[in-house]
Design brief:
single chain; 158 residues; mainly alpha; His-Me finger endonuclease fold; 2 domains; two-stranded antiparallel ribbon; 7 helices; 2 strands
């Protein structure tokens, strides 16, 4: 550590700089979450509100990520959200021919580089990969097959 920088003393990461109360950043956030129920939810809500209020700043921040950082973020999201490894995603993509499982088209949104992982929100089972339009569409129908069939029947009317 450079001179003048306090190091953490209340956690096992004594080589890291102190963030607050003698803890490094990671341990301070964990301590805060443990001692303050609802902290994480409030923090996430505050961040989401900021993103919605500042779309230009958020887009600029995301665009500044290097390709390597974006790839790491995507891999991390696949593991955290869906419990799959990047190679499993690639297997699904190859199995589907690189196109959406519903419309059989590649991703249509210019800001999206990859297809979305579609999963059952109740069982968390992965169903396939969808373009953002189809993924949003089935989401609007609450993933309800009966409702989607009624909509298809309605669209078939002359």
């Amino acid at each position: 550590m450079s001179q003048g920088v306090k190091t953490a003393t209340k956690c096992r990461h004594t080589h890291r700089p102190e963030k607050a109360r003698g803890f490094c950043g990671a341990c301070y956030n964990a301590w805060l979450a443990d001692t303050n129920p609802g902290y994480r939810a409030r923090r996430i809500a505050r961040f989401k509100a900021w993103k919605e209020a500042n779309p230009e700043k958020w887009a600029l921040a995301r665009s500044r990520l290097s390709d390597r950082q974006q790839r790491y973020q995507r891999h991390s999201d696949l593991r955290r959200k869906y419990g799959i490894e990047p190679d499993q995603y690639e297997e699904l993509l190859i199995k589907q021919g690189g196109v959406c499982a519903i419309c059989e088209q590649p991703e249509s949104q210019p800001d999206r580089k990859s297809l979305s992982v579609d999963h059952c929100h109740r069982t968390h089972r992965i169903r396939g990969l969808l373009c953002s339009r189809c993924n949003t569409g089935i989401g609007k129908f609450n993933d309800d097959p009966g409702l989607l069939m009624r909509a298809a029947k309605y669209l078939s009317k002359e």
